[in-house]
Write a structure and sequence with these properties.
By secondary structure, the protein is mainly β. Helices cover 12% and strands 31% of the residues. It has helices at 25-55, 124-131, 296-299, 417-428; strands at residues 4-7, 10-13, 82-83, 167-175, 180-189, 203-210, 216-218, 229-237, 248-255, 263-271, 285-290, 305-313, 318-327, 340-348, 351-357, 368-376, 387-395, 403-410, 434-439. The strands form five sheets. It has a five-stranded antiparallel beta sheet, with no helix packed on it. A four-stranded antiparallel beta sheet has the order 7-6-9-10, with no helix packed on it. 25% of the residues are buried.
Length: 442
């Protein structure tokens, strides 16, 4: 039975009503703080998403590109950027014949920490732009063919003249549909014989696009011929038409050697700036270039100088060699620089018994090595009478055979000039570190 609630003189029937306690002020403050925190968190997430979306856009350096072509200027590192549409991409795999890629000397080796180099390090594009005026004009003696490729009589005689290294025939076209540069290596004629026994060669051609040096492709090896015919296409994707004026095709003709490093026949440089490729999509531009020797650049330049320090320790039968630095080295690369390193041979009784080498110093003509090496010499009563040291300064190249810039020999019967003076000082002053500059010789 419901309770009776008496309010004044009025009696009402119904449920009993009790007053509710007031909400604490601390609870209200907590709810307000929680709501504000949730709002701040949502705002931060929205801002982060917008910022992340905006950072995906890249600067195109003034080159108009479609929405699906988001790539940096001169960046060719996209999937399958170089292909051979007709023959597949078999040549991109490591072939059992031509020499594979090499790692620079000093990588993975323990050695003293060398200081920074004297040479100024530039980006590859800036180096190339500064070097373009210094590119030799000897390769421009070839003839540009505007019409159909002419047929030339092939000289079947062996090419004995080292200055005449034959010719390279190739075509170039630009595909606007694929946004790609297509180079076809057709053939070489009248190459010199690198195999003296068979009076022949096993030639193949390597190609790379400068100044980036991102892609290095090669043709197949053709056995025992001085007039190889390749007819192989190489397609460089992601090359915008506006980029062509600053690019250069670098061909290197080599002869495969199964038992040693491949012999370099010569090279060809072709600047795309002087070629009109606007209407070559359906009609490729055929070109012929004379193959020039790689060593030609050393004839017009000096080989530079090297500073070395030696100390003979008779008690422990050791010779300490410190390769300090080099200067005024010749320009070995298209960028006007080189990648030098030094090999040291310890020679006893005209036989090399030990070898050391420095790290590679990239892109400099004045490298600083500051690397020390200790050679244990045979214990004899003659001291250093039958000992001599041979220094070879080389230019490291990932694509082809490392080229010798110059050499120096200390000690031995053929030691003359500053080398002989330095060697006599070492013999006269044991346990002293003696340094001297030397000119590099051929």
């Amino acid at each position: 039975m419901p309770k009776e609630n008496v309010i004044g003189d009025v009696v009402s029937l119904g449920p009993h009503i009790q007053p509710v306690d007031a909400v604490s002020w601390a609870v209200l403050v907590g709810l307000c703080i929680g709501g504000a925190g949730a709002c701040i968190l949502v705002t931060a997430l929205v801002c982060h998403c917008i910022k992340k979306k905006n950072t995906k856009k890249k600067h195109n350096f003034g080159i108009k590109k479609s929405w699906h072509q988001e790539r940096t200027f001169l960046s060719f590192r996209k999937q399958t950027p170089v292909t051979n549409p007709d023959k597949g991409s078999h040549y991109l795999k490591k072939s059992p014949s031509p020499t594979g890629t090499k790692s620079p000397p000093g990588v993975g080796q323990t050695g003293p920490i060398s200081p920074s180099q004297d040479g100024v390090t530039l980006t590859p594009v800036n180096e190339y732009l500064q070097r373009k005026a210094l590119i030799t004009c000897s390769q421009q003696t070839g003839t540009d063919v505007d019409g159909p490729q002419p047929t030339e009589s092939v000289d079947t005689q062996l090419n004995e003249d080292s200055t005449n290294l034959g010719k390279l025939f190739f075509t170039v076209r630009y595909s606007f549909e694929k946004n790609a540069l297509v180079v076809t290596v057709n053939k070489c004629t009248n190459l010199p014989a690198k195999d003296n026994a068979n009076k022949s060669s096993d030639p193949y051609v390597k190609l790379q696009l400068l100044p980036e040096k991102q892609h290095k492709v090669k043709t197949r090896v053709l056995r025992r011929t001085l007039n190889p015919v390749y007819d192989e296409d190489f397609t460089f994707y992601g090359v915008h038409f506006n980029q062509l004026p600053i690019l250069t095709l670098h061909f290197v003709v080599l002869s495969f050697d199964r038992y040693s490093r491949d012999d370099v026949v010569g090279e060809v440089m072709v600047e795309l700036e002087g070629l009109d490729l606007s209407n070559t999509d359906n009609s490729p531009l055929p070109l012929i270039r004379e193959i020039t020797p790689r060593s030609q650049k050393l004839k017009s330049q000096g080989r530079g100088e090297i500073l070395v320090s030696l100390c003979h320790q008779p008690a422990s039968s050791r010779v300490t060699v410190v390769v300090l630095k080099a200067r005024n080295l010749p320009k070995m690369d298209i960028t006007g620089l080189c990648d030098p390193y030094v090999k040291i041979y310890l020679v006893y009784n005209n036989q090399r018994i030990a070898k050391k080498k420095t790290h590679v110093k990239k892109r400099t003509l004045n490298p600083v090595f500051n690397e020390s090496f200790v050679f244990d010499i045979p214990k004899t009563d003659d001291g250093l009478a039958k000992i001599n040291l041979e220094f070879l300064l080389l230019d490291w190249d990932r694509v082809t055979k490392n080229e010798v810039i110059g050499r120096l020999e200390l000690g031995g019967a053929e030691c003359t000039g500053t080398a002989l003076h330095h060697w006599k000082e070492i013999l006269a002053s044991p346990r002293r570190q003696i340094a001297e500059w030397h000119k590099l010789k051929e």
